[in-house]
Design brief:
The structure is a homohexamer.
Chain A: H1 3-9, H2 14-23, E1 35-36, E2 44-55, H3 72-79, E3 85-89, E4 97-99, H4 101-109, E5 114-117, E6 120-121, H5 124-130, E7 134-136, E8 148-153, E9 157-159, E10 162-164, E11 169-172, E12 177-180, H6 185-207, H7 220-233
Parallel strand pairs in A: 2-3, 3-5, 4-6, 5-7
Antiparallel strand pairs in A: 1-7, 2-8, 2-11, 9-10, 11-12
């Protein structure tokens, strides 16, 4: 993906991006009940690489299945491209793990940008220590085959009630994860970047005691004042 | 599928089949929160033909999309083979419709055996009048594209927390729907058919005032008594 | 409200109306988890008269409070205009009753068109015998003050996750309830009425063995065929 | 239990009983999400006989366990006294069956008054044909040991978020189930019976076009009018 | 509000206050599923200023609406009196934001005591940095008009299943939020303050190895011992 | 319990133990929605001592009841043996507290190993400061008798959808709580301890850039390499 877009997306919030999406009629792009495993990491940005789970069946989903190098979960870990985000459709079911610390360590070492699921991860204290962007519903220690069967890679999926198409741009911050349609990523990044500068200006003015009307949403007067502030700030 | 298997499955309940499945270690084959639209229909039996939904995206999922003959939902309606059951993975979300009466009418006319989803159908009073086996979570009038995007056909899916592989044998009765792994269908049908005969014998004896111990579960004595009863009944 | 609109709305389904609403960008007009108490009644149509509940507080919400003629629930029952639909915001909580058979009998005798809540009614077997349109989440016998405090009348409310403004047109059928913004009611009624005629034509053709493509959604050819069918049917 | 109490309770609704309970400060006596399997049966009345389930463990809960005559579920079926109601604490989990038609047939033949659980029953079409009062959350075909372990009999339990002590009086009607503390059953029955007569009077007057104020809740004038009506009715 | 009451409430926990409320028959005053955005802040105390949301409607709830100075959300931010707590009824729906960091910054600068909703806030990492008491269900980045319509100010509302009347005293600590009826605030504060002193005494004695009986709940002996301890501590 | 088992269990994770349990066919041993009150404490290990709650009834469950030394909750606090874990079945209901900081302080001083419930604790900031292992669903300030009645001790219970028999070995870490059948504790501890050593080896190799295939799951080659690594590490 475009490096300027990546840089700008890394500097904005998922909240701001949802506002830009709503302007385009897109209302359902933020994953519900998907949270960061660890707080305080830099913003995660990257194109989606998708992995789909279906419910497990006891005769098919045994621990032995992981030895197969074609097992889609293991294949995802080894083939998700560097800079991409692995997104796992776990059907919002966190009663057993979607992945654990060893697989996530491997993703990190391979240069992947992050991992997201609407299920749960296991070994979350270890994942938190990795400092790698990981988003899930809640910790879930039970081993995956109790509940999940890894079905396939790189199909459109749902995750946290959001449609995710391979190549969509996934952004994660301290609140959660938003999915940008691939063809809109550049313009959304640009717009959100500008909006963020304005909102930083508003925050500064509010701290000085200014009231909201005329300032937020912007008025012609406030836009002029912002232009001045921005050039003073060298932004 | 084997006609003897079809006939036997049509004569047993989904409850009895779950007992036969548990004997083989299969605990998760009955769909949770999937109910018949109309009561009192004959038991539904047929191999699964699968259709998968993901969450809708406002720019892709518009009413106009249905005009495309390659739209997977429309294609499913026209290509699901006679005698099969169309199973739709709606991610357990019934806030908009998975299908409506016109599509289901077409399925019925084409000789399809039934339709199942873990979402909801619209036009359910009309569907009930069709007398066609249809199973869902609850009535849901809102038009599908508000929530669902039909993604693809004949992949393994989840439905009501059950794994459904194309060709698995789907059985539906007045309580709901069970999914039989294809390779086990014949033996499960035979075993459930025998079990049903025994349970009919038990029910008759209980109505005569017999107590459970020694009768249910079966003892050697009760099995002998059953053999006699069965031959008397000509079953 | 316009009698022609009332007549047309009484002849269409809530499902068809959701399609007409989506064409106008309105996606959230059908109440989730709101069901008819009794099946098989004529379609309910009428402007909304709203009643709002908040959680009860034990010192304020006692059975004695009902003796006050200004109690908003009792006032709603006596002042909801004939032909209107009383819509009660019970915050989707059905653990105690939103209303019971005596109050609903009074509404019926007064000529009110129906009653709707996202909570539950008590005395539902008696309500079902009244033959009066009543929609709720599930039967709930516990007396209302255990949970609900009637706060006020004729404010905008939420009901089943739908915004309801006083005067909006409420339509209920065998599947549930849809809310039409007042200013759109006439055009939605006209459009849905036409759509229903076309869908009846499609249903007839499907029963004759026709396939969906070219028929549903409509094509130029099918529209011509429909025009002929319609005039033959005298509709 | 007192036969006069039994007769009166059989003539009132669970809704009316919740009002009498609230007057005594009891707010949580009606089971949430517990519904009749079949509509239209006479009111169920009887003292509670309790059976408690805990979650199953795969090594302990096998089909073979049912052969043990000391298995608490089987023991409950054979020892619940005639006229009592068997109440099963299934922890509100209906993903597998709490009981099925054969066991319930045996209960019926033994003269038990009814069966209640906050889980689900299997073989519900057959149970509905028995005409025996049975209350549960929803149909659940999977065999019980998948989820439930029968732990013990005649301890205080929870069912549908209600405390049930052995000997409490359980009443079930077309809406659901209420639990009366044993020591209050007689006075609650008497009070509800009187209230029902008054409410029948109110219903008759409402049908004649009377308004609610002064009638419901009762005023001195309406009480006098009721006394007259009642003697005219011979009640 | 009374400064002594404010001071005492700031020194007790919401847990202790629920005990004092239960003594008065009030069982439902603590908000369910409402959590502090940031841990470790001083206890929040202030009278409630209420703001009510209903579900959004796509044609009414657009980003442009915020430019209207009469928009109830914006008006709430500018008019909630210093020392008060803004309480937002978001119908327990956290799928889009009830408010964000800029509005909350303005509240803080204006001297408001805190903000509470049963929905979710956006920009929660920024809110956490403000050090301002904010309570919600969970982070929710999507912009508010996707889901919420701000309807009105200063009406009685529900929040987290609790009735909130304007002027009720709202107290928030590290566990959550309790609502005190205005007329009981002084006596509840006094009682909870005394109870807290006793519980601190109990905690000290437990750390010394004392057992609970005779100490908690208090006995005559322990009350005498407490009096001595308290005077020694100069409390 | 065996000290070697205790030591080994203190050195493994609940995640690893679920894998060992699945090998034995045990799929439901990890408590769902049960979380540590405070992060970063040592792993909790000890045999289960059980306490069972049922729903409260307003006339029985009053604050005065705690003065009875036979009250099962208070008795649990004083009699749970040192080194054991007190497990409270709160029926997954966290709307009022299962226990608070004073009782938990007493448990800690008495040498108990930890406390677990599927409900909620009150005074959680104080509990967090104790540094004592406590696991629950979420903070819940309301006083217990609003919702819970302590029924009895040392019966088999359910907690977080897991069967807990007195004497089962309870292990809690930063993710949650797993329950080991008493007779399997020693072998599970030994197996999980070995597995942990291998997984530490894998983690080290992954950090060096090794890929998963041939390493995880183990191959003959990787097992040989591990043996060498382990002896080098002196483990």
């Amino acid at each position: 993906m475009n490096e300027d877009t990546r840089r700008k997306l890394a500097a904005v919030t998922t909240a701001t991006l949802t506002t830009c999406l709503l302007k385009r009629g897109l209302r359902s792009a933020w994953m519900q009940n998907v949270h960061p495993v660890a707080p305080g990491l830099p913003t995660m940005v990257g194109p989606a690489f998708t992995l789909r789970y279906i419910p497990a069946r006891e005769d098919l989903d045994r621990l032995e299945a992981y030895a197969d190098p074609e097992h889609p979960q293991r294949k995802a870990i080894e083939t998700c491209p560097p800079g991409h985000v692995l997104v796992i459709d776990a059907r919002k079911d966190a009663r057993a793990a979607a992945a654990g610390d060893l697989l996530i360590t491997r993703l990190m070492v391979r240069g992947v940008a992050g991992i997201v699921t609407d299920g749960g991860f296991r070994d979350t204290p270890a994942i938190a220590r990795l400092g790698f962007p990981a988003y899930h519903q809640r910790p879930s220690a039970p081993t995956g085959p109790i509940l999940h069967h890894a079905a396939d890679l790189q199909l459109p999926i749902g995750c946290g009630d959001v449609a995710v198409y391979p190549g969509d741009v996934v952004v994660g911050d301290g609140e959660g994860v938003v999915v940008l349609p691939a063809h809109l990523a550049d313009e959304l990044a640009a717009e959100a970047f500008e909006m963020t500068a304005y909102e930083d200006f508003v925050a500064a003015k509010l701290q000085e005691g200014r009231s909201l009307p005329g300032l937020y949403p912007a008025s012609n007067a406030s836009r002029a004042e912002f232009a001045l502030w921005r050039s003073e700030q060298g932004r």
